[in-house]
Amino acid sequence: MSKLAVFDFDSTLMDGETIDFFAEVLGFKEKVVAITERAMAGELDFYASLVERVALLKGLPQSKVEQICQDLPMMPGAKEVVAGLKAKGYTVVCFSGGFRDATKPACEKLGIDADFSNFLHSEEGILTGAVGGEMMYSQAKGDMITRLQALLGVNRVDTLVVGDGANDLSMFAHADTRVAFCAKPVLKEAATHCVDVKDLREILTIV
Q: What is the pTM of this model?
């Protein structure tokens, strides 16, 4: 029987928010953090908050983006939980409202089967402040998980989802095992399990 595990990236597989690391280089981390916090708590529309935050990144060199993304801190237990779930027969996938620059190298290191995220637009090696991709809307993760379930022949009973913020709610609607990981209250309310310590290995005690 096929099984599917879907993880959020920022503050779930990775210890932090990718966009905050970018903003720190440009000197306005606090402004971006404040918008991110409100979006993850469900106080702001995810799409509007993403567009607003990425606009602030205009002028950042693509080379700097790649450099930061090669060195992002993984959440404790990330590699172990992926290996443990795969040993139990899961296909492990990452959905991120963040950026492919970050998810691609991280997921390759962690042994994750596929990643779905957004793209930062650049011209001549410099970010333009524009963003596009498959994970830009609050309903995107829900839409993508149902497509993957159909493709893999997996039902909701055999689907595990793990996230921390409001934009994970749409994928929580399509899984019977829903883990809120060090999560915002809005997501905990929709979860079947809550993990409140920064150790992803705790998930292996649930499945």
A: 0.95
